[in-house]
Amino acid sequence: MTSHFTGIDTIILRVRDISAACAWYAQHLGGEQVYEDDEQRLAVIEFSGGSTLTLWQLADGAEFVASGTYPILACTDAKAAHAALSANDVAVDSLSETPGVIYFRFRDLDGNPLEACEVKE
C-alpha cells in the first residue's frame, strides 16, 4: 500500500496559559517558539533537531486534564538533562537504563507527562 504520510508533523499538548507554557518550554527544554496564533491561542515550539510540539491553550472555563499520550524528547546525554532539570526545580523521575537507552520521565508546568531518551550507540 502506498502511504500518503511522511511522518509526524507535531504533537499537541493542552496547557492552561499559553504564555507561561511557552516560557517554561524555552527556559527548561531550550525550545524556541516559531509560530503563534493568537486567535486559536496556540504556539509551536521547535527543538534544535527540528521536531515540534504545539501548545494549545484550553478554552476559558474548560477543565484541564493532563495528557495520557506523551512525547519522548531525544537527547544526547540523558544524565546531564536529568541533572539540569532537577537543578531547575523540575520534578523528574529517576533515570532508567536498558541495554539500548537511558531515559526518564518528567512533567511540564501543567502536569503533562514528557520523557527524555538517549539512545546509546
UniProtKB/TrEMBL annotation:
CDD domains, per database record: VOC (cd06587)
Entry-linked Pfam families: Glyoxalase (PF00903)
InterPro entries xrefs: Glyas_Bleomycin-R_OHBP_Dase, Glyas_Fos-R_dOase_dom, VOC_core
Domain VOC, residue spans: 7-119
Family annotation (Gene3D superfamilies): 2,3-Dihydroxybiphenyl 1,2-Dioxygenase, domain 1
SUPFAM superfamilies given in the database record: Glyoxalase/Bleomycin resistance protein/Dihydroxybiphenyl dioxygenase
Name of the protein in its database record: VOC domain-containing protein
